[in-house]
Amino acid sequence: MSVCFRRILRWTTNVILFSGSLSITEWRPVTGSVPPRNQADWEAEFEKYRASPEFKVLNSRMTLEEFKSIYWMEWIHRLWGRFVGLSFVVPAVYFVATKRVSRSMSARLLGIASLIGFQGFLGWWMVKSGLKDDLLAPGSTPRVSQYRLTAHLGAAFVCYLAMLWNGLDILRGNKLLSSPPATASSTLAALRHPGLRTFRLAVTALSALVFVTAMSGGLVAGLDAGLIYNEFPYMGNGLTPPKSELFDPFYSHTPDHSDLVWRNFLENPSLVQLDHRILATTTFSAIMALWAWTRYSKSLTSLLPRAAKRGVHGVVGFAFLQVTLGICTLLYLVPTHLASSHQAGALALLTWTFVLGSRTWLPSRAVQKLVMERVGAPTLGGNAAAAAKLRDAATASAASAATPMSATSLASLGGATLLPLLGLGLGRGGSGGVTNKETLGHEDVAPAGKMLVVQKDQFLARQRGIKSS
């Protein structure tokens, strides 16, 4: 699903650059999936487009054959979006309805499914902004609102990142639980080292910075700001345009100019491009600072997993690629293939930043709890004696139960779906605490990777017996 989202995002860039987003002037989620099938249908669609401001102001000489090319681009974009949405929503509803995933994962799946539906609405909301009659006024340029375009782009990025984050979380949890207990314990101990906390915060901040930079690129695309100042690093006679051009009263909508600053930041193409340059330069500098930190700080180098070190190099590589694509896109007056690659590069850089983070972030508390219990570590608020008694009680109950639950292979389950199937929950009262309502007892993992699960009533009875003794 993440791959499909990446491709549809890149295709969206092509649609915008070819001015195809306004070629379909209606939003029909069901019947719109069927394209024109004969000449009469094509003439009807073309007639609707002729009534749009874009045709009247910019494309009045367009022929029917030329219209077909931009129509097909927008139609494929919309159909692809519906396919991606259904491919995620239908399985998600099935897994949630049949309770094949945990409560937390159910909430995540439903959240992503809702966001996909909202994304479709944002797409039409964006297109609708380019069909208003006020765009026919002198001095206006028929195009979609840069605000709505950026909102549409941002929602797509959030959808993709939510899928990516959950996928990485499941894969990491499964890998940790499938590894030998000693290896899993040492990995978890290394990730818990206080020295990695600052690094994790730095990667989180870097991810946010990359995202904000990408969204500023959405404003650049929405305003066609890449078609001015096609040079680098200068903008005219200096590194920045004149102040009078950056904060032009033309963009203010109030008599007292109280909105002068923020409207210029978001609507003035010169200042929007400068903002994007500054954010991109800041992001690149932050990435290089992170690389230098991981390379020359002996204390951090000794703590970082080998996979995380490789991840830093990957982020640096994508950063250099993205900077090169951005400068070339500007110098060559925004050719479609370069602009599309530049947007794809932003998503690739953000993806690799998340991958880097996943290699140092701590797994979920439930996965940590399972790992510690496999190696016999205390899990009840640091009470080793109570934990040992509970393990002994769980073992005895599992051995004496008339119909014990069947063992489940760790290797065949994802981390997020493994925990609810094992019946393991997290206590809310303390660090790693066990609550009677949420947690089932279970035995340590056998060498073959199996785990016996004790039925809840038996476990609670044993637990009450331990407390009374």
From TrEMBL:
This protein's record includes keyword Ribonucleoprotein: no
Signal peptide: none
Membrane topology: Multi-pass membrane protein
Pathway the protein takes part in: Porphyrin-containing compound metabolism; heme A biosynthesis; heme A from heme O: step 1/1
Listed InterPro entries: COX15/CtaA_fam, HemeA_Synthase_type2
GO terms, molecular function: heme A synthase activity; metal ion binding; oxidoreductase activity, acting on NAD(P)H, heme protein as acceptor
Protein name: Cytochrome c oxidase assembly protein COX15
Organism: Exophiala mesophila (Black yeast-like fungus)
